[in-house]
Structure of Endoplasmic reticulum transmembrane protein:
Amino acid sequence: MIQLFFTVLAAEAAVASTLLFKTPLRKLAVLALDRLKRGRGPVMVRTVAATVLVLLASSLHTMAQIRGRAEGELDGAGVVGLTPTDQVLLSRHLLEASLMGYSLFLALIIDRLHNYVKEIRRLKKNLEAVSKQNKTMLEAAANGKLEESERDQKDISDAKKDT
């Protein structure tokens, strides 16, 4: 199971780094995540995340039990100690718990990065459309519609005098 979590962690780190830097792979990663978030994808991801969260809680509970069992045993000198078997079990559960936690954290990071990349793309399109509209308006004003702007300036100055 530890090998599986290392593989998942490596894949998630690769996707997160792909989303962080603007490379040709970023577009593919965004498309893949878009497809994953359609249909039954979100339900499946939530189910897997909930299962991993339950496994994480179980691992943490087992670690607490091992610690509690070790605190109840005193050796001859009155010092609390773990047996070698408990040390191995504790280190294995600690490794599993940390890998599960990192995996859940990276999944959250990937989701947020995906949303931010899509939002940036949408804002850039809006900015291009507004700048294009602004450019056409400036060209129209410069080509002969100066009378309208002069009338607008006159209306503004009249409104200022009235107040």
